[in-house]
Amino acid sequence: MTDRPIVILTALDLEYQAIRKRLLDPELHRHQHGTRFEIGRLSNSHCRLALAHVGTGNQSAAVLAERAIAEFAPAALLFVGVAGALHSHIALGDVVVATRIYAYHGGTSEDDGLKSRPRAWETSHAADQIARHIGRTDSWTRGLPDAGRLPHVHFGPIAAGEVVLNSKVSGYARWIQQNYNDALAIEMEGAGVAQAGHLNGAMPVVVIRGISDRADGTKEVTDRDQWQQRAVANAAAFAAALAEEITTEDEDGGWQATKTTAGGPGMRGHEVTYNIAGGNARVGVQAGIVHGGIRLGFEPDRPTDLAEALVRFRSQLKRARDDGHLDEDTYAAAQAELGVAEEALQTKVPQSKGRLTLALKKLRGLISDVGELATELAAIIALAQALS
Description:
It is a single chain. By secondary structure, the protein is an alpha/beta fold. It folds into 2 domains: 6-249, Nucleoside phosphorylase domain (Rossmann fold); 259-385, no CATH class. 38% of the residues lie in helices and 23% in strands. The chain has helices spanning 13-20, 58-72, 125-135, 171-179, 190-198, 219-224, 227-249, 306-322, 328-346, 352-367, 371-385; strands at 6-10, 23-30, 36-42, 48-53, 76-85, 95-103, 107-110, 113-116, 119-122, 153-160, 185-187, 205-213, 259-264, 267-273. A hairpin with a 2-residue loop joins strand 13 (259-264) and strand 14. Residues 258-300 have low confidence and may be disordered. Residues 5-242 form the Nucleoside phosphorylase domain.
């Protein structure tokens, strides 16, 4: 188990307080530009949380999510708060965990009407699997007030926009019903944090919302009946259980990307665990059963100097973009992380190696779907970790 924190962000103060009261001895952590985080451990847990209040809206959520990721290099980022339900089977107080986030305000206005051009981000498979496992049990509800009915956990898309929806018949309501009918809930920050996660090497982001109203014109009544407080207490309880489980799984600082499966024509898939050699050591093959031919050694044309390898990798990134293997957003984010790595390599301070390795790992998350780039980057990471 590593000590990487889980970052939790909230939009409202009551959401912040629901998380904060679960922390033991929270300590203030000031970012150089003024953002205040509180860091503490969950009660009866090894899980360390970094908590911040970001205010409402996707823009502020995106900026401060990016800031939190850069500051803490967390194992995951959770956004916890309240939302309005978009379907009648979801009860007040239930919890919705996003499987996909829609930025639903994207569109183009034409003569025959407004055409939807949404952006969407999927929740990572590993995080989704852990959340579903927790949702199948009632253990996460321990300590919640007995209200006669345990809150249910729903998994599905969430729509994130820039306005509070409190109507079933307004133009916004009809727009969402027409174009995002599978969305279970609506809120105002999920798209921002999802984008920040995407631009930081597929940083695992999970949006967890307690249902405090039905987005149907009755919000004043449900707020007066304190459904916000009840809903966020339920969301906070689920988020705490999820954070603890992720921390437990994060044994080596890379809970999502430590293993892969090898396979090919006529070959069963086999689990492969990567081993990185330190110092002057080199590992040829470490395996149980190996099927097929084996070639030992290092490719003669692959640079052994880290600076040269980074220059070569920059050219390979551009070629992958030109060939259509990387989209523009991913390419830009990968270029930025590569720039951070190059700068860290040139800066001779004690923190340089950590910054270099972190940038390369974020880069790995961005290009992991492109096989040749992933193979090349694995060798570069090994060179970086061998630095004295």
